[in-house]
Amino acid sequence: MDGITDAPMRALQGEVGSFTFAVSEFVRVANHVIPARAFQREIPECLNTGCTPTGMPVAVQILGGDAEMMALSAVNAARAGARCIDINFGCPAPTVNRHDGGATLLNSPCRIREIVSAVRSAVPADIPVSAKIRLGWSSIDAVYENAQMAAEGGASWLTIHARTRVQGYAPPVFYSPIREVRESLRIPVIANGDLFSLDDFRRCRDETGCMHFMIGRGALARPSLSYEIAREMGIAAREPICDWVELMSILRMWTERCGITVGPKNVQRMKQWLCLANRYGEFRAFESVKRIDSVAEFFEALKVEIAQAA
Fold it and tell me: For an engineered disulfide with 56, which of 14, 159, 192, 309 has Cβ 3.0 to 4.6 Å away?
């Protein structure tokens, strides 16, 4: 989801009202402490009381393996305006894992506790600190100790992706361990993984017993999904916008409002969205737009394809 769930996309998703909370793309803490201005640049919601322009709260997500640098970076995030800090222990990207970040920490439960504890101790008490993990690196059984370590470190809540790192995003997902973790901890547990339809959501809800859920790829693949899930959960939301031309126009509008120049890079982001919709949803016109770099040509081709499909 890196590169597409940025501030304009978060503003768009918040506009519908079906999401109650969002998490930023991760800010990588590698060889230096991240300054406050970098958080404000990458996550402009920091300058708006931690919310999108459409009013949706956004947590600042950080990723790294050095507890001290993570803690100091979290302090700067709070100074920048972050109202919640999320720690990423789940990213499966090989580049991230080779540099002591993301899911590689799943092999070191005590370091998970150390990092969460360091961040929790460093930021003001009124700023929640949460963590996201996978079931484990190669074994789903690792989730029990890793979850316990995150809780002992002081995590306010825990998000669990129902796969191991070795799986990446390959099937299947394993929801039952999430239920066991939820029943063993005193903090809220958020279920995540393969929520691409309302039936997927119902299965996840029934097997995990969770009351909170995180969706990513599914929300972009099927624009109506977040609305369907919100309605199932009793959350009031606007009717979803399902017209792809209108959705891309809204994304373009928020891109401009966020001060980002609309050009080839942003067309690439739109194509990244449509690629997800082609792979996991019902969008079937991706081939006609995937090589276009001009904003005007992109919208013209998209309008033609949508009209022909109608």
Answer: 14
